[in-house]
Amino acid sequence: MRKIVVLFILIASVIVGAYGADKKQIKQLKADIASAKDAIKNAVDMEKNDNNAQKKLNALEKSEQTIAKYLSQDEYRERKDLYLLLIDLVRKQYEAGNEKMYLKQKVDTAWYVRTGRRMFLTMEKFDSLDAKPNEKGVSEPSYRKKHGAFLAPYRENIKKGGIYFLKHKEWAEAWQCFDVYLESRNWKMFADQKNDSVDDRKVAYLSVVSAKEIPDLDKALKYSTEALADTAKRENALMLLSELSLDKGDSALYVKYVTEGFKQYPLSEYFFPRLIDYHTEKGDYVRSEKYVDEALKKDSLNGLFLLAKHTVLMSMEKYDDALRYASLLQQRNDTLPILNYNIGYIYNVKAQQTLKKTGVPYRHRMKEAQKYYRLLLPYMEKYRKEKPEDRQRWYHILYDAYLNLNKGKEFNALEGK
Q1: What is the pLDDT of residues 304-320, one digit of tens each?
Q2: Percent helix, percent strand, percent coil in the chain, to nearest 5
Q3: Most exposed: 149, 193, 227, 361, by fewest CB within 10 Å?
């Protein structure tokens, strides 16, 4: 019997304790609501630039944080009265900032922009809650029209705030502003508002710029379609999306953007080499040559395109064609050291192939090979002078050439004798 009594006392103490905790929590909520209402009520003459005004502003901020904390909890998440209180707390702060700016008083611009952004997001959250169907299945958002009318004149400030953060290289803050600005087009509160598609495309581009610098690929992609629709910024947008895709390891997306960039801007020095490099590194020389040929159709004398053709042909071991393009480039006074190396390398390959021929007397093979060795010397020796540190490339080729041409003096010099 004693055990039962003890158990009963234990259960009773838990119930009373829980009830006491609930009672304490309710009391605290009431006190916080009263404090928030007082902060709103006292928020007058906020435009004055004095300590009293700052104290009132601090009281609004403190109550905002307190009420927002309640709304983050499941038991209070759908309390409309708390949301309306939160809206008033944020609105009062924003209006104080507006008044100060109107009076040309000093205002923390970053704080002002963030406050405005919170005001928009808070009213949108409330609108979604307010629009939930009642027990009869009817949706009657009673504040939508009022809140929409209030926010509409300030929507432009959200965009300007994003530009402000962009100029100050606060990329994440900038993107958040552009996101709210563009997302708000779909808010029911602004259903009657007309949107400027040209302006929206410009903002979308700025969102890509911000996302690139964060860096965040998902954020960049969110408005990428609109950003690419801005013809004035499309080329830059494609570059940004290409670079970010590569940085984040999304090779499929990277090649998509550089390909699109090449097709739209074939003479750009950005997309073409990256597209060729990508396919060449993958060993897809056929595709690389296809894009090179497309580029040459646009500009047959373009040095970059000619060099790419030469390089691809080298990779495909089409040495006669590669030699022709290298010679063409040098006739254009292109002085790239790699051209001297490649020409020398091709003649060295021809010499080696000649020496390996079967059914031909060695004396004839050596005579023909020496012809190629003599042809390679001026190119490889020049490359050696241009790139002395690149010994692993030129040393063995010059070694074979001097040896097979009986150039003892040059051979000894090469060996350091």
Answers
A1: 999 999 999 999 999 99
A2: 75, 0, 25
A3: 361
